[in-house]
């Protein structure tokens, strides 16, 4: 770990130990940040995910620190490309998130920051399981096109306010998220982005995800929330 961190224009490359594995990560801490968001990537994705990097950039513009990290080692990623099994090993992915959380807490540069999780697809399931395992550490969770059903047994134990964002045309995932919303026992919200499919590739839809996530994390991790009109469909509370 370096002694100082550069401005929000630069990332710091890290190697994070996790139960014998060494995970690659990129940490970026803007000046004055009081919160840090860990990204849990989805099926077959990594810290290089352009969609998550876009959201991370928007969070940093709002004064939040970000950690984009691989939950699998390069060797595990090679295996997963062939078998497609590890990306659905929610227990393993959650363990890696918990290890990264504990590691961040032990570092002087990040130990005082409020922590949140941003999970995409299967990574959202891992984020919710990890949040349930560290109820006193995680201040907020945001899921983008997530599979919270993969965390079904852990949902009642989640203590972090949770925002579920789903594309309006992603019908099967909408239903999964509605069922998860009912199981959560915390402050919660389901936002449905009209016209968006699972990957939010339609013009303007990923921007809506970024705005929603930034406002949610700003509210719960202590940054100044942007003043803007709410979009999408709200459910739960």
How is this structure best summarized?
The protein is of the alpha/beta class and 237 residues long. It has helices spanning 50-61, 74-83, 90-106, 122-133, 171-183, 205-221; strands at 12-18, 21-28, 35-40, 65-69, 114-120, 138-144, 162-167, 188-193, 233-235. The longest helix has 17 residues, at 90-106.
How would you portray this structure in words?
The protein has a 9-stranded mixed β-sheet, sandwiched between helices. Helices cover 34% and strands 23% of the residues. The longest helix has 17 residues. The chain is globular and about 40 Å long. The protein is α/β, with parallel strands linked by helices. Strand 7, helix 5 and strand 8 form a beta-alpha-beta unit. It has a single domain, classed as Alpha/Beta hydrolase fold, catalytic domain (Rossmann fold), CATH 3.40.50.
Entry keywords:
6 helices, 23% strand, disordered C terminus, Rossmann fold, 34% helix, 237 residues, alpha/beta
